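Figure 2 data, in text form.
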Amino acid sequence: MREIMLLKSGKNGRSGAPLLPALFFIFLFLQAVSVAHAANITNLEDFAYGLPANIEVEQNALNYTPTKITARIWVSNYYDNDLIVYLLKKEDDGEWRAQKVLGLVQPGGSEKYIVYFEASYAGKSRSSTQYAVVATGGAVPLGQYFDVDENWGEYEKEQNRILFEGAQVIIPALAGFIIFLLLVLSEWAYRSKANSKYKKEYTMKTFFLPVIKGKDIGQIIAGVLINPLFWALEVLLLIIIAAIIAKSAQGENVAIMALTFLGALFMPVVYFALIWIYNELVEKMPLRFLGGAFVWGISAAVASLIINSYQAQALSEFFGLGSAGAILLTTAVIAPVIEEVLKGLGLLGLSTHHEYCDTLHGLHLGLATGLGFAFVENWLYFASKTDPLQMGIGAWAGIIIYRSFFNSIAHACFSGTLGATLGWAKEHHSWGKLSAVIFVPGVATAIVLHSIFNITAIMDGFEALSTTFPVYRYNPTMIITLLSIMVVLLIGATLERRHGRRGIRKYRTYKEVKKGK
C-alpha cells in the first residue's frame, strides 16, 4: 500500500500576516525540511504517544484493484512552537519509516489533512497496515497510531464468480475447437498421400512401429522423435511439472489452470494447423514429423524450466549478483542459449531423416518446434506468475491473449531460422554431411534473435513503469521484424522448391533404396 495524494486545509492561531513574508516563510520551511531529510537528523521512529489528533479512515469493502482508501487527519497544536507533521508507516520488518511531510501547524492552530492510500489485492482476504502521524517541534516527537484495514472478501467473491461463470463458457468452447481442429488434421493426414522414399513407408503400422532394421543411428533417432509412444512420455513429463507448479502456485483452482492451459494452447494449435495446410498444398510432408517437432518443443520447454531454475541461483552466487542482476543476465543471455540449444537438438535429430531434405521442410519443422515450446512456456508462466485477482481479470486476460498470439510467433521464428539452416544444408549435398557444423551458426542466429527479443521486452517493461499509460513499442516491433524474416524465408524456400530442386519421388521399396536403385 502506498500514499498517493495529500490535500490540506485548516486554520492557524496567527492571522493577518502579510502575504510575501508568509510565502517566504513557507519557502524557508520547505528548504529546512528538505535539508532535515537529507541529513536524517530527526529520529522520528522514537516518538512518544500523545499527539492531539483526530483520525478517520474509510473502512469500506473494496470492490476492485487497485483502489483508494481515504484517511482524514486533524492535528491541533496546543504548544508554543510550530509542529512539523509527518506520516510514518510500519514496515514488514517492524521498523517505522517516514513516508512524507504532511505540513506545519502553528501554535494555537489546527490543520486538516486528507491522505489517499492506494490499496492493491495481494492474495489475502484481509490485511492491515499500521501508520502513525508524528509531529516534531517539542522536546520529543509526539505521535498517534492508526490502522488502514483492507477487506477484500467481496472482491474475491465477485471475481471468483466471474471466473467460474466465464470458465463454464470459455473452457468448452476452446477445448471443443482445439479437439475439432486436431481431428480434422488427423483425418486429413490419414487420407493424404505423402511423398515417400519407398512403398509403405508412412502407414499406421510404421507410425507406431517404425522400421529399425537396416537403418543407421541417425534414422533411428529421428524415428523415435516422430513416434507417438515417445510423445506420450514427453507429455507425461509436462503433466508432472504442471502438477508441481499448480500445487505451489494456484493451489486447487482448477478453473484457472484449465483456462491458462487452453489459452496457451489455442494459438499454437491454430498456427500449427496453418503450417500443416501450407505443407499439404506445397510439399506433403507427413503430419507425424510436424507433430514430433511440436512435442519436442514441449519437452525442450520443460527441460529449460528445470535448468533455468537452478542456473539462475548458481549464477547469482558465483558472480555475487543480486536477484535483479541475476534475472537480467538470465533473461537476456543465459535463457536464450539454453532454450535455443534444447530446441535445436530435436531439429538436429530430425534432420538425420531423409524426409528432412530442403529449406522448406526445415522451416516448417522449426516453426512447429517453436510453437510447442511457446505453448508450455506461456502456460507455466500464466499458471505460476499471474493471478487474475491481483491483476484484475481484464489485465490477466490481456496478457494471455498477447503472449499466446505474439510470443508464439516469436518462438516459432527463433527455431524456424535454425530449421531452415539445417534444411538448406541437407538440400545442398556438399553441406548436408556437415549438419552438425551447420548447426552452430544456425543456433547462434536463433540465440541472437531470442536475446534481442527478450531485451526489447525488458525495455518495454522499464518504459511501462515510468509512464502513466504504458505503450509497448520495442517488443511488438521485434515481433513484426521476425515475422517479416520468416515470410521472406518461406517465399524463397517455396520458390526454390517449385523450381524443381526436389520434385515428386517415385515410390520404391526399402530394399531398392538400400541398393541405390
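Caption note: The CA atoms of residues 142 and 224 lie 76 Å apart.
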